[in-house]
Specification:
Layout (H helix, E strand, L loop, with lengths): L5 H9 L18 E3 L5 E3 L22 E6 L2 E7 L5 H12 L6 E7 L5 E8 L25 E4 L13 E4 L20 E7 L1 H9 L2 E4 L2 E5 L5 E6 L2
Antiparallel strand pairs: 1-2, 3-4, 3-12, 4-9, 5-6, 6-8, 7-8, 7-9, 10-11
């Protein structure tokens, strides 16, 4: 059984992002502006980091940390499960610490046979950002690819190839769940759930799409991640 929908599989074949050699970031500087509503330019240069605040921050929850993903379409808050997906949560936190996700976009929306919103690797000008080392797949943790969960993307032929790309399930995608300890059957690791901003994801999932070269299901109106920060 093959678990990746054809659009996503095709992207993996054409785009070297998830190859074991890495993302191949190159020396091109990412764009700092994207098209907003009515074609307006949204400048992101000063929005990738939060201004210092004197407000006391809550103590971090080590087993269930929460992160706020601030996008040009609105804010999304996720509560991660380090109890069941410790390596995957650490991996996500490392990318956040290195500001990897700042100025990346949601570069693919898949509507069939599964419904997901994919991001975490490309800038607005479709340049790749280099990843960290691939991690072990924890899809056997018992968490399911139900609507409102966040999961890691990987290559279809290598269960332990996830790096920086993640996706949100905007429907119940049981075909992506762990089935067996094989490359095709291992599934895709869920490591948290959306606690706020599901309406933002639904908006992205329903927006018009187009194909651009090797990118399939690219939102016509770019949705960029301005910053990701841990809020608890």
């Amino acid at each position: 059984m093959q678990f990746l929908p054809k659009p996503v599989r095709a992207l993996f074949v054409l785009v070297p992002l998830l190859a074991l050699a890495g993302c191949g970031g190159g020396s091109t500087q990412p764009s700092t502006a994207v098209n907003g509503p009515a074609g307006q330019k949204v400048d992101l240069t000063t929005k990738s980091a939060d201004a210092p605040s004197e407000t006391p921050q809550p103590e971090p929850d080590l087993l269930h940390p929460s992160f706020e993903i601030d996008t040009t379409a609105g804010k999304i808050t996720v509560r991660l499960d380090a109890e069941k997906s410790p390596m995957t949560v650490d991996n996500f936190r490392n990318y956040v610490t290195h500001h990897h996700y700042d100025l990346t976009i949601f570069h693919q929306v898949v509507k069939t046979p599964v419904q997901i919103v994919l991001g975490g690797a490309y800038t607005a000008d479709l340049k790749e950002k280099p990843p960290l080392t691939p991690i072990r797949n924890e899809a056997h943790n018992g968490l399911k690819n139900h609507r409102g969960t966040i999961a890691m993307l990987r290559r279809a032929d290598d269960e332990d190839s996830a790096t920086c790309q993640f996706f949100f399930n905007v429907a119940d995608n049981n075909v992506l769940d762990f089935k067996a300890r094989t490359s095709q059957g291992y599934g895709y690791c869920v490591f948290g759930e959306v606690t706020e901003g599901m309406d933002v994801l639904d908006q992205i999932a329903k927006a018009p799409l187009h194909d651009s070269g090797k990118f399939q299901g690219l939102p016509v109106e770019t949705v960029a991640i301005k910053s990701v920060r841990q809020v608890r």
